[in-house]
Design a protein that fits this description.
Structural class: alpha+beta
Strand order of the largest sheet: 6-5-4-1-3-2-7
Oligomer: single chain
Shape: globular
Largest sheet: 7 strands, antiparallel
Helix content: 40-55%
Number of helices: 10
Number of domains: 2
Number of strands: 7
Length: 281
């Protein structure tokens, strides 16, 4: 075996983990993230970006692989918000990302642990277009991440992806990097002066109350609880999307997709309920 191959084989495979990067300020992300009902730490990650660091996850309990869980969470956050969500995930065998944006189909890419590309090149171009990256310079940088590279493992590939995103304002705090152990990620996030914990609420009334407050501050007119005519259509769309997602997750025993579908159904149902109990003038 060559020295290079030996070096790569001797690298320690990372334990499963993930990060959720949201292209929005922490105040906006905090409200949406509480609907996931998971313990997370939230902190700023550059100009117009925030990062959610899970304090645990179904993958730690053997319920579902980390990629499915992170994709489900990203999808649930993005459908109910006007900003995209980028899920980074890794385990002992692979590493990758999923970009969720509105009701569009999520796009993602995967690398094996040793850095071997295992995705479709078109996904990178779609990724660049949805985030408004430079169609020439940035796409060239992304294309290099899909080419063979004997010295770049999955961890390095994900860091290369993050380097491209610095051109659109992303600036992850030092220590919050793909492949880092979960306890290290939590420690770094907790040490941030603007860090805040995010936890699930006790019931729908509490969530509804907070969303009413946000709507009162004119966050977005199309939020389900805003009273805007667009809200009813959005709530119906969320329910129409959530039902097949929940059914698919239940049929395939996928906790991540089941959670995403259930949250969308609940979010849409609360929106319709508010619309019916608070008629517009």
């Amino acid at each position: 075996m060559s020295t290079e191959a030996t070096s790569r084989a001797g690298r320690t495979s990372p334990a499963p983990g993930g990060l959720l990067l949201c292209r929005a300020a922490p105040d906006s992300v905090a409200l949406a993230a509480r609907l996931l009902r998971e313990r997370m730490l939230l902190t700023r990650a550059g100009r117009g970006w925030s990062v959610l660091v899970p304090e645990g996850g179904p993958w730690l309990r053997g319920e579902d692989p980390v990629d499915r869980v992170m994709t489900g969470w990203a999808t649930a956050l993005a459908v109910g918000a006007p900003w995209p969500v980028l899920a980074l995930w890794w385990d002992a065998d692979r590493g990758g990302y999923t970009l969720a944006s509105g009701f569009r189909r999520p796009v993602g890419y995967v690398w094996l642990t040793n850095g071997t590309p295992a995705g479709e090149d078109e996904a990178m171009r779609t990724f660049a277009a949805r985030l408004g990256l430079d169609p020439v310079l940035d796409v060239q940088s992304l294309d290099r991440l899909t080419a063979p590279d004997p010295v770049a493992d999955a961890r390095a590939r994900l860091r290369g992806l993050l380097a491209v995103l610095t051109r659109v304002g992303l600036d992850l705090p030092a220590g919050l990097a793909p492949g880092e152990p979960a306890d290290r990620l939590r420690e770094v996030a907790r040490d941030r002066p603007d860090a805040r914990p995010v936890e699930g609420e006790d019931g729908p009334d509490t969530v509804r109350g907070e969303l009413e407050a946000v709507a009162a501050r004119r966050l977005t007119p199309w939020l389900p609880w805003s009273g805007d005519p667009k809200a009813r259509a959005l709530a119906l769309a969320q329910m129409a999307t959530g039902l097949p997602l929940a059914a698919w997750g239940l049929r395939h025993r996928s906790g991540g997709w089941l959670t995403a579908g259930t949250l969308l159904l609940a979010h849409g149902a609360l929106g319709l309920s508010y619309d019916l109990t608070h008629p517009r003038d």
